[in-house]
Structures are given as C-alpha cells and as structure tokens.
Amino acid sequence: MLCLQAVTKPPKPIRGGIPICFPQVANFGTLEQHGFARNRLWSLDEDPSPLPPANNQSMVDLVLKSTEEDLHTWPYRFELRLRVCVGADKLTMIPRVRNVDNKAFSFTIALRNYFSVSDVSEVRVEGLETLDYFDNLLKRERYTEQADAITFDGEIDRVYLSTPTKIAVIDHERKRTIVLRKEGMVDAVVWNPWDKKAKAIVDLGDEDYKSMLCLDAASIENAITLKPCEEWKGRQELSIVSSSYFSGQLDPQKVLNGLR
Fold this sequence. Notes:
Elements: E1 20-21, E2 43-44, E3 58-65, H1 68-73, E4 78-86, E5 90-99, E6 105-111, E7 114-116, E8 123-126, E9 132-135, E10 141-144, E11 150-151, E12 156-160, E13 166-171, E14 176-183, E15 187-192, H2 194-200, E16 212-226, E17 231-233, E18 235-242, E19 245-246, E20 249-250, H3 252-256
C-alpha cells in the first residue's frame, strides 16, 4: 500500500511500498532510522552478476553504490543490488550486498512490506507463534509469543527472531491470505502504529493504520558480516492465495505449506 499523505520527493523516504532498510534497521545502531538506502536514488543495473533466469516474469535489476556522502556516515564501500520480478501471481525481490572495500563490514537489512488490509483489527498473522521477540515498545525486552496467532488491538512494534521461511497474513474480510516466503533473512518485524502514533506521523493519515500492516523480512539480531569481495544474498517472495474456511476458521497449515 501507499499511504495517502506519503512524501514522494527526495530525500524523504516514501511511506509505503517496500522500502529497503540498509545498512541499519530501525535504530539498531548509530545511523539514521532504517539506514540511508531507502532515501537514495537507485540506478538501473546494466551489468548484474548472474542470477537464475526469471521465467515468464517481468524483471528489473537495480543497483545502489556507496557515494562519498555515504562514506562520511558509514565508512565502507558497498554495492547493493536488487532484482525485482513480477509474475502473474507473485512478486519476488532478491537483494544482494557486496563488499567492494578493503576491510570487512557488518550490516542489518530489512524489506519493509506495507500491506493493504481490510481492517487490521480483523487480521491475524500466523507462523510466528512460540517464537521469541524483541518488543520495541518495552525497551527491546525479550519475550516469547504465547498466542496461537498475532492479532491487533493496539500499537505493535516487534522483532521476531529465528522465524520460519513462510509467514501468513490472513485477511478474513477479503477472504485472502498474503504469504511471505523468505531466504537469508531469519527475522521478521511486525509493525502497526495504531491511532495515537498515526496522528503524530506527518506522512501517515490519521486513519491509515486501520488498513495497513507492516510485516518485514529482516536480519537484525545477528548482523551480517562480509569480508572484502564477499557477497550476501537474500530472497523474498510475496503471493496471495484465496482463504479456505473450515468451521469458520482458516486452515493455517494449508496456508503455511503454500497449498492452493
């Protein structure tokens, strides 16, 4: 989704879509919130390194390279590449980070997915039950998820740790489920500002929180370290499947197994 009051002029990040948080997620470090990659203009990658072909999909390769301005705040030379593939029923993003410096560096990364939902208070997220998480609203204290599914009745800002490769966002009213599949990003962030914080966010409409949910594929708890010339690769695939009901409830195992 794209928030109605989103600012689309640089250097402000756009509130919506799928911003790339790099080389820092949130304020887990000394850089600006969510790093600087989401605030930069990317270029078409004319010479991307080989990746498997995207059969029957439209695709684009983008690249962001460190600038002298970036080096003043984060003194490492990098290349951040992103392949975006759009198919009939899925969206795939493949981020890659390469160390082109002569010294090692560490980073965290997230793909911040702004999902449009019918009514966030009627939505549930499945696949994160029994997992540990950092609660950013409680000084990043570590807790264990006790609920069978995550539901929403107030502000939430959590980093779930060591998450599975598949997570489901179940929207009963729209009778659909968004399935997030990921590789190389072991954590997941769940965020919704709720009413009070929404009113304090300039580029977010007062009522936008009701129809949005952020579920991010991320690597946060353990930073990724690259030596010179090393490369890291992640992958995220988003798809939508029709929800099937049994006794008024969705079969979560069917969703998480990716059956259609």
